[in-house]
Amino acid sequence: MSLEKAEKLELEIEELELADMSAPEIERVVAALSDEGMQLRRARKEVRYKLYRCRTEAEGKCGSGTDEDFKKLFEDQDGFGQWRFFGVTWDVAFDDPYRIVHRDKSEQEEWDELVAAKFPTVLPGGKIVYPDIKVRKRVEEEAQKRGLI
Fold it and tell me: Given pLDDT bands bounded at 50, 70 and 90, which one contains residue 72?
């Protein structure tokens, strides 16, 4: 492993909040940080970028430029609906970025759940609702550091 790659991996590890994870989640993170896991993650990221381009082309938002063989590889699989449903009803597998898997929730629904679980919500009238006590403590600590309370 190169020094640059090791430094990047170290930064990614520092950003993880292992204290908030269960043992199985930590095991998955460690496995994903292996050299093979990082290569797979990079490959999946590249494939998903190309798939987003296909979706954008299908929606008429940009010109074509995606390889037809690449498109056909996905269009011929079971589970392919339409390009506009990529990220909504189907995605690619984590262990094989060229295999379609069905999504239980759209990316937007997953994002909304993540935000609700990790960040406080300000209700009309100014009341703040915290997802859990850890988030509340972190927000209060940060506010004190900044001199806001």
Answer: very high
